[in-house]
Design brief:
By secondary structure, this protein is an alpha/beta fold. It contains 12 helices and 15 strands. The strands form 4 sheets. It has a 7-stranded parallel beta sheet. A 4-stranded antiparallel beta sheet has the order 3-2-1-15, with helices on both faces. Helix 1 crosses helix 3 and helix 9 packs parallel to helix 10. Bound molecules: 2-succinylbenzoate (OSB) and magnesium ion. 2-succinylbenzoate binds next to loops.
């Protein structure tokens, strides 16, 4: 496949309901899409970067700039045989994993179309159905949170994850457990705690959580290992794992017993598969995280979740939880038993809705060699 041109687009997509984490509240997503034009094929990718540099250093304006100015020129005019050829072509740029992932994943997306095979199969997946959980943000009141949980359980979701931070944790978990003693429940702190909170976090053990996600600093393995030794509950790392090498370091140190794999955070499908493989070698389960993606990123998350060691329910949930109207067809849907059926069709298996995309687009630029 020769990369003839690359289009970047920013879409403005209001969320059905705001999403709040320990680092802030989002009402409207700015979605960055890239399209690789190669040999008459279009591969689509989504950059998971947030509106601001709060989950990680990356954010949409920076990602746009590094893609247009540095990354796209490294691919333009190149002939690539596979999505897995892309990381080495982009390696000279340090960091910017979410920007790189958008391009690499678009190349895998195109490759799956060219080979007339489902993307999930190309990635090495085997699951025909994936288990779906939900991530529920911090709400205006405890009642509002309990109502949301009730709705999601009624919809069939297999695991509830709630966001926590100091002041929105023990009391909340107490109320959830009082009402639903048995459900699969986890919490995600997005780095809201420090070592001063050790005793406090240890008190979460009584809630029999499936895991506590990323309680400490976003770049730390060492103190998570120390905390893990003090806890009965499994720790799960999200922010801290940016590569397969990180996964290996974390697992050797004992920093966590579960890993959240986000394809954007680790820089694309190749590295995500490598993280999956490292965890599998250590006997550690992984699950697929989400970044409030549109249908493009969401469909890629579905494909990734079909790999064998994605054995825990992920944060990959239905389009309608986020969007009034998604940009793919069919939209991502979840069964009454909380699972997503993996499409048999070639490529990503969810077609782009061009009219909806152009209605939502607020800026667009095509980069090509003159
Ligand atoms: O830490 O998993 C996270 C959303 C934005 C940034 C970070 C995170 C999240 C989520 C939502 O938890 C997952 C989703 O439903 O897409
Ligand atoms: Mg997280």
């Amino acid at each position: 496949m020769k990369v003839e041109a690359i289009t970047v687009r920013e879409l403005k997509m209001p969320l059905v309901h705001f999403f709040e984490t320990s680092f802030g509240r989002t009402y409207t997503r700015r979605i960055l899409l890239v399209t690789l034009h190669c040999d008459g094929l279009e591969g689509w990718g989504e950059c998971a970067a947030g509106e601001g540099p709060f989950f990680s250093e990356e954010y949409i304006d920076g990602a746009w700039d590094v893609i247009v100015r540095h990354l796209a020129p490294m691919l333009l005019g190149k002939t690539i045989a596979a999505g897995s050829d892309v990381p080495s072509l982009l390696a000279r740029v340090r960091g910017h994993p979410m920007a790189k992932a958008a391009l690499e994943n678009a190349a895998w997306d195109a490759e799956a179309q060219e080979r007339a095979t489902p993307l999930w199969r190309l990635l090495g997946g085997t699951r025909r159905e994936i288990a779906s959980g939900v991530s529920i943000g911090i709400q205006d009141s405890h009642e509002q949170l309990l109502e949301k949980i009730e709705t999601e359980l009624a919809a069939g979701y297999q695991r509830i994850k709630v966001k926590v931070k100091p002041g929105w944790d023990v009391e909340v978990l107490e109320k959830i457990r009082a009402r639903w003693p048995q459900i699969l429940l986890s919490c995600d702190a997005n780095s809201a705690y420090t070592l001063d909170d050790e005793e406090h976090v240890k008190s979460f053990d009584r809630f029999k959580l499936l895991m506590i996600e990323q309680p400490l600093w976003s770049d730390d393995f060492f103190f998570h290992a120390r905390l893990q030794k003090q806890l009965q509950t499994a720790l799960c790392l999200d922010e801290a794992i940016r590569s397969a090498r990180d996964a290996e370091a974390a697992l050797e140190l004992g920093s966590c017993r579960i890993i959240n794999v986000k394809v954007g955070r680790v820089g694309g499908f190749s590295e995500a598969i490598a993280v999956h493989d490292v965890a599998q070698r250590f006997g550690i389960p992984v699950w697929c995280g989400g970044m409030l993606e549109s249908g493009i990123g969401r469909s890629h998350n579905v494909a990734l979740s079909t790999l064998a060691n994605f054995s825990l329910p992920g944060d990959v949930s239905a389009s309608k939880r986020y969007w009034k109207e998604d940009i793919v067809e069919p939209e991502i849907e979840v069964s009454r038993h909380g699972s997503i059926a993996v499409p048999e069709t070639h490529g990503r298996g969810f077609e782009v809705r061009r009219e909806v995309i152009s209605e939502l687009t607020v800026r667009q630029q095509t980069v090509k060699n003159s």
